[in-house]
Write a structure and sequence with these properties.
By secondary structure, the chain is mostly helical. 76% of the residues lie in helices and 0% in strands. The protein contains nine helices and no strands. The mean pLDDT is 94.
Length: 224
């Protein structure tokens, strides 16, 4: 196989794996995200991020993005199960994924180079969780605080991505998803009529956000 043929094959595999991830994410959104824990729910939820990671790896993309996606996949599996231990495992996994994304965005943007007003707004968003979220988190108060700080730091680093607008949109979609998850986990009643639409919205924002981040920063040239 010539070099040109190998490159063409890897590109085909890349797009095939991205499609697998998108289809699996759509199936999860429509058929599983609002249902109680089950083996199939976990299996389907575990597909999108590894598929995206494999797409990046097979086409010689960013190793750091692959690591962030693998950590996110661990978080997805953990959050598909019930219990505080599973939730804390997911929280730690996603916190580490955010650390990796902060590193990626920082390297690409050169630091916190976004507009000062937007950086201040992010700081206020983080502080607001002390009012509407922290009093309801119980023993998870400090893990949640640390997580809030990390995801807002990720958003601040993403504001400087002037040449990777898809990744910027993806980072803020990720933040919106986590905000909905926090509200659902700590503030919403289990029998609320909004459980299903919120579950779908947070998953679409999360999976879509990850895809946009991959599209924007996983390769030297943005996917779109």
């Amino acid at each position: 196989m010539s070099i040109v043929e190998e490159i063409a094959l890897r590109q085909s595999i890349r797009f095939g794996l991205l499609l697998v991830g998108i289809v699996a994410a759509a199936i999860y959104a429509f058929f599983f995200c609002h249902r109680p824990p089950s083996i199939w729910k976990t299996v389907v939820k575990a597909v999108p991020m590894p598929a995206f990671a494999a797409a990046v790896a097979v086409s010689f993309g960013s190793v750091a993005v692959v690591i962030a996606l693998v950590l996110s996949a661990i978080g997805d599996i953990a959050l598909s199960r019930e219990g505080e231990k599973a939730f804390l495992t997911g929280l730690v996994s996603f916190a580490l994924a955010h650390v990796v994304y902060i590193f990626i965005f920082w390297e690409l943007s050169g630091g916190f180079t976004g507009a000062t007003s937007l950086l201040v707004a992010l700081g206020l968003v983080a502080l607001s969780t002390e009012i509407w979220l922290r009093p309801f988190t119980g023993a998870l108060r400090w893990p949640v605080r640390i997580y809030v700080g990390l995801i807002c730091t990720m958003g601040a680093a993403a504001l400087g991505l002037s040449t990777a607008s898809f990744a910027l949109l993806g980072a803020f979609a990720f933040m919106a998803s986590d905000t909905l998850l926090a509200f659902q986990r700590f503030r919403m009643q289990p029998d609320s009529q909004f459980q299903r639409p919120v579950s779908m919205a947070l998953w679409v924002l999360y999976a879509g956000g990850q895809f946009l981040i991959v599209s924007g920063v996983a390769w030297s040239t943005p996917l779109f």
